[in-house]
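Lecture 7 notes: from sequence to structure.
We start with the chain below.
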Amino acid sequence: MGRAFEYRRASKEARWDKMSKLFPKLGKAITVAAKEGGCDPDLNPKLRTAIATAKAQNMPKDNIDAAIKRANGKDSADIKTIFYDGKAAHGVQIVVETATDNPTRTVANVKSIFNKNGGEMLPSGSLSFMFARKAVFHVEKPATDLEELELALIDAGLEEMSEAEDEIVIYGDYTSFGTLSEGIEQAGLNVKKGALEFVPNATVSLDDEAYAEVEKLIDKLEDDDDVQAVYTNIE
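Predicted structure tokens for the same chain:
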């Protein structure tokens, strides 16, 4: 009984710890999307998708509304999206996406994380030819025929669609984010996550030991408050 209680408490604390880090990042993504394309979700596909992603993670409506309102505040004027390039052991390349109001602090933190965890920060743009900017949507697997869905989304900008156990991942060029988002909505699909991501043009395969080594660096980067996403060329 005691062990079961301790396990439940530890699990609850782990969930709260995850939410305490995830919700601010989701909120910042909403604020940035609203700042870039306006605060009306009906007229801003990127904002609609950011909201859908937040809802899929059970982010409360009050938090979402507050994040949208922040787009019109003084603080949001200073938030910038900045990308940093780096590398780790075993041929792993890394692109770090940040949203920050203090680039000096952010670049120092990111560089320190690379240096302390077996990585190295690279000059900005070093990996521009190693990754492609894509519109990527993770959606719940529908009951409809996937081939028909694929054909329906081609006109909206679909380039590729992959299938997993409980979801499908839809890829399109970054310029097609809006039309692809609308096509997904019209198809009645439930978005779990959607964003502009960096997809590697070629990948590297790691064994368990090598992956564990690189994972420490990735985890440290993802834990930083200013980091929104970490993209790698790991298979």
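Points to note: The mean pLDDT is 89. The radius of gyration is 19 Å.
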